[in-house]
C-alpha cells in the first residue's frame, strides 16, 4: 500500500537546477516541462499551476507538471501512482493528462474515475523526432507568419484544433485567449505557413523549445488542398528553419490512427522514439 505522499513535495525556484537535470536527461521527450521550468523558474504564479517532485534518498527521481496539462516527467509506474495519490486529494484542475504511455497509464489507473469520466483517451500516440536534414526537398514558400497574416492564420488554427481535439477552442468564451496565444506564437517567430494566392494552404507552429529540442504542434492543411504533398514539403521546410534557428532536434507526437500524417512525417525523416498517451476532459 502506498504511504502518504511517497516523498512527493511541491517544487520551487530553489529546485530549478535539479529539476532541469532530471528533465534534460531525456531532453526531447521532456521538452514541454523543461521549457515551462525555464520560462517560469518553477514559480507557481507564473506556472499557473504547480510542479511536484518525488524524492528518494534526498535525490529527485521523478516530477510532475500540474497546470492546464498534467505531465509526468521521468516517472516510472510507482512514481506515477505516488503523484496520483497526491492529486487525488484535490479536485481536478487539469484539462489534459499527457506524456509517456506507461506513466500516463499508471497515473490514470491509480486515480481512476475520481476525476470524472474523460471525454476521450488516446492511448498510444507515436512520439517522433528528427535531428538531421529532411529527406525531401523543403517547400521554399513556407515562411514565418506576421501579424498581417493573422486573418488567415487564426481561422486555420481554430479549424485544426477543432478537427484534432473535437471541440472548438472558442467554446466557453475562449476566443480571446486563443487568439492571444496564436498572436504570441507569431510574435515569437514560432508560427510558419505557406500561402497560395492569398490563402493559407499549410501551417505549423513551435509549441515549446529549449536549447535541445523544439516540439511542433498544429500541423494543418485545409481539406481542399490535401493530397498534394503540401504537408510533407511544408514540414521539411519547418524542420530546416527550426533546426537552423531554434533548436537542433524537432519533435512532435501524432495520433496512431492518423496514417496520412504519419506517412508524411516518415517521408520527411521523423523516427519514432517513444509512445505518448493523452487523457482529455
Automatic annotation (TrEMBL):
It comes from the Bacteria. It holds the Pfam family Acetyltransf_1. Residues 144-281 form the N-acetyltransferase domain. PANTHER family: GCN5-RELATED N-ACETYLTRANSFERASE, N-ACETYLTRANSFERASE. This is GNAT family N-acetyltransferase. It comes from Nocardioides fonticola. The lineage of its organism: Bacteria, Bacillati, Actinomycetota, Actinomycetes, Propionibacteriales.
